[in-house]
Amino acid sequence: MALLTKAPRGTADILPGDSYKIRYIENSLAEIAGNFGFREIRTPVFEHTELFNRSVGETTDVVQKEMYTFEDNGQRSITLRPEGTAGVARAFLEHGLFNEPMPQKYFYHTSCYRYEKPQAGRLREFHQFGVECMGTQSPAADAEIIALARQVFDFFELDDISLEINSIGCPRCRKDYHAALLSYFEGKKDQLCETCQSRLYRNPMRILDCKSPVCSAIAKDAPVVLDFLCEECSDHFKAVQKHLDAMDIDYTINPRIVRGLDYYTKTVFEFVSTAIGAQGTVCGGGRYDGLIEQLGGNALPASGFGMGIERLLLLLNAQHKELPEEPRVQLYIAPATQDFTVEAMRIINELREEGVSALTDLENRSIKAQMKYANKKNVMFTMILGPDEIESRKATVKNMDNGETAEISLDTFSEDFMHVTINAALADLDLGAGDIDLNNLTLLTGGKE
Ligand code: ATP
Ligand code: MG
Question: What's the CATH superfamily of 16-170+230-318?
Answer without folding.
Answer: Bira Bifunctional Protein; Domain 2 (3.30.930.10)
